[in-house]
Amino acid sequence: MDNAQEIVTFMKALASEELRTSANEIDENATFHELGFDSISSIYLLEKLEKKYEIELSPLYFWDFPTIALLSEQVKKEIK
Amino acid sequence: MNTSLWNPLDTKNISDPYPMYARLRKEQPVYKAQTGEWIITKYEDVKSLLKNKDFISGNKMDWVKKGIEYFNNKDLDLSAIGEAINSFLLFLNGDQHLQARRLITRAWDDREVDDIIDSNISHLLHCVKGNKEFDLIEKFAQPLPAMTISKIMGLPMEDYEMLRAQGNHLLKVLDLYLTLKDMVEIERSAHFLVDYFGQHITRKRQHPENDLTSKIIKLNEEGPQVVSDRALTSLCLFLFLAGEETTVSLIGNGMLNLFRHQDQLQLLTNDQNLMAGAIEELLRYDSPVHVVGRIASKNTLFKGYEIKKGEICTLCLASANRDEDTYDQAAQFNIQRDPNRHLAFGNGIHFCLGDWLAKRQGALAFSSLIKLNLGLTDSTVNSIEWNKNLSIRSLKRLNVKMN
Q1: Range of the domain at A72
Q2: What are φ and ψ of residue B392, in 5° steps?
Q3: The CATH number of the domain where B356 resides is what?
Q4: Rounded CA gap, A12 and B200, in Å?
Q5: How many domains would you assign to chain A?
Q6: Which of A46, A50, A58 sits opposite B9 (nearest CB)?
Q7: Confidence (pTM)
């Protein structure tokens, strides 16, 4: 079972690729909006999470859990 | 913990969004949601923004265009969605909107429509004759508007079911929040329908007949300004779709609400002169279209809130129609309610063009259905399931029995 830290790492890697910055520079407590995601790139992010963890996520999770830290906690719950 | 007042995708809000609307109206009638959009829930506010020229249509179109570009960079082609919806009336502004609207109103002919609807209803009711139980959505509410508009537009009648199903996928584009899976499915249907309606237009141009498509093509060619074939395809597709799921919703939600309010059903059964008022109340009480979007075209101070240029307002028509400050006993279903100036068809320059057809189709459908003396099946009473679509609220199924 993936723990929350692994999910955080996965999301940071995705974000670094998407935003073209190093994964180390990505703050898991910054909002997705602050990081540079928007309502379109959110679709891509959620799709990647759904595929990787074989779950279904509400498109509203991007705003309801608006940081990498919060969303990874939620993803962890969905996996269970 | 999510403390937002705006949770439209929660299971309980999908099955009954009215408590969420009521709370928003009471606590935060102009609400900045977690998504960044403004949620507007009171009647006077919704009405005033529908009429305000600084709040324009087409936020979804802009979003789709950006999405197409974004996913194109990821080698995913979603361009057919843009082709399909580029001339949907609800996304157009200014002259482009007026021009398209004028073209349709000039080509439209009210006559003959009653006969078409009546013959479709007879056919559908004939098909369920002898069944003790049937699904009113699948067997009646879904096919009826598709058959009617197919006939009006001169589409081949053998295609209406397939077109309805494809159209239903495409219509998901109107939903507020989508996943990539949704987008891919929408793209597939968009691609198919753009091809199909493009061919339909070509055929009607070569062999015009006495149908709406042929009339639109002819009027368009006469000018003064000519709409491109690309736009014409999207416009015809819009005409086909606009009255589809909304009418399924009117008939399905309408019958459910009549079943749930037996006293009102009895009133209507005894006096069909109440039909016109009943339709208005059904439209108000459980409106087919729940939300429409607008974008602020400049910075605006609205009721003390600064709405910035480019921000989106989600106008909750269905909430406005239940506003306690506008209606006496707003939560009560009363087919004799008067006055009843609801916003189910919007307001201002985008007021729904199909209101007449929707009401006519509704009236003829309800008249025939109540004569059958139907009731909900026992299993349906406690398990009403709604489609997970925020913009148009409709039932998955409605199993009824012949009493």
Answers
A1: 4-19+29-79
A2: -125, 125
A3: 1.10.630.10
A4: 49
A5: 1
A6: A58
A7: 0.94
